[in-house]
Design a protein that fits this description.
There is one protein chain. With 384 residues, this protein is an alpha/beta fold. Helices cover 41% and strands 18% of the residues. It has 15 helices and 17 strands. It has a five-stranded mixed β-sheet with strand order 1-3-2-4-5. Strands 9-6-10-11 form a four-stranded mixed β-sheet. Strand 7 and strand 8 form a beta hairpin. Helix 6 packs parallel to helix 8 and helix 11 packs across helix 13.
């Protein structure tokens, strides 16, 4: 079942819904979403409104009630919760206590995270109605469990932050293993975004651990700059907004082919300037791209749609090791395509980099694979 959304457009409706009573929301988890019609992001059809609707439509969240409150027309309710800006989100546990709140801002992803934590949290249980069972674990066992949990959490955090845009999916971009993962890949590809990914089918520890770590029970899971955005439903809602994923999540710097360097404009405005400035700017751009991910592939096309046989083969090799990597489509940026050849003194593509260092092209990668060295390089297990 899904959650319901109750519209509260004035204090009378708030009173009728018993929201002004001291113990009004006791016994149920609730979200109060304060908005204003003049504030486009929170008004009907805005990104916050669309995300709330998507969250309400999720299955398994029937224990959460969502109240959509017109803040300025319900001053008593707004004053009760000290609402001074829109959007404001108040997340209330089943005892009616506010456990989290969001005041203003544009962080749509945080709404998803707070809602997920609320929906998955246990109901409050008083000591009079519950007797905690005796702890039969030895201190050593507890310590080992905590260490194992911390080790897994550190690994998950490392994976989540291994690329500015990270997708955890079933399968790979070139061979998704479920329809939801395929749709997520299509949206990222349509948005022309460069992203990293992890195939959760190949690692059950990550598959199960990430659900608990991020309080999100399904896959795919979409992260931006280390923060959970949500699943396929959230991605769809954001895609339908003006500018799609790129605009709504401010991902312009990660669009394939976009040049964040100002050197081109400077050269056009000042054609007589020494070309050293341009070369330095291009080198800075190349260095930034090479270090964008621990494993970086410069190829023709993107992993889900290679544009040459050599690029296709190297993608298949990398995918076979189930490691997270990022890719740059050199067909979309002629400056990078020509400049990288000179920068790395390597005349062909694809080019593979690990930790900022050039490994080589397809022939080198194949030789390392045959010699058994590639796995250690990709997983970071190389010894001196």
């Amino acid at each position: 079942m899904s959650s319901s959304i109750v519209d509260i457009k004035n204090d009378s409706e708030a009173k009728a819904a018993s929201l002004l009573d001291a113990s009004a929301l006791s016994g149920q988890k609730s979200v109060l979403f304060f908005y204003a019609e003049w504030h486009e992001p929170s008004a009907a059809g805005g990104p916050f409104d669309m995300v709330v609707k998507a969250l309400a439509g999720q299955s398994g969240t029937d224990g959460v009630n969502i109240y959509r409150v017109l803040a300025e027309e319900a001053p008593s309710l707004s004053q009760k919760y000290n609402v001074t800006t829109v959007p404001t989100f108040i997340f209330l546990n089943s005892d009616g206590a506010a456990i989290e709140r969001i005041d203003g801002g544009e962080d749509v992803a945080r709404v998803t995270q707070c809602y997920s934590r609320l929906a998955s949290s246990a109901s409050t249980i008083t000591s009079s109605s519950f007797t905690q069972p005796p702890n039969t674990q030895q201190p050593e066992e507890q310590s080992e469990e905590k260490e194992e949990e911390q080790t897994l959490n550190n690994r998950l955090q490392s994976l989540i932050t291994s690329s500015p845009i990270m997708l955890f999916l079933k399968g790979t971009p070139s061979a998704p293993k479920c329809g939801f993962s395929r749709q997520a890949i299509e949206m990222l590809t349509e948005s022309n975004l460069t992203f990293g990914y992890f195939n959760i089918l190949e690692d059950d520890e990550v598959r199960q651990g990430l659900k608990s770590y991020s309080d999100w029970p399904t896959y795919p899971q979409f992260y931006v700059k280390g923060e959970l955005v949500g699943g396929l439903d959230i991605m769809k809602e954001l895609m339908e907004e003006d500018g799609g994923l790129v605009s709504q999540l401010e991902l312009e710097d990660y669009v394939i082919g976009n040049s964040t360097s100002s050197s081109s404009a400077v050269v056009e405005q000042q054609p007589t300037e020494d070309t050293t400035t341009t070369a330095l700017s291009l080198n800075d751009k190349l260095q930034q791209l090479i270090n964008q991910h621990r494993i970086m592939l410069f190829m023709k096309g993107i992993p889900s749609s290679p544009k040459c046989g050599f690029s296709r083969q190297i993608v298949e090799i990398l995918d076979s090791y189930h490691v997270s990597y990022d890719a740059f489509n050199i067909l979309e940026d002629e400056e990078v395509r020509q400049g990288l050849k000179e920068y790395s003194d390597w005349p062909t593509y694809p080019q593979l980099y690990v930790e900022g260092d050039l490994v080589g092209g397809l022939d080198i990668v194949k030789e390392m694979e045959e010699g058994g060295d590639l796995k250690d390089l990709l997983t970071g297990d190389m010894t001196d």
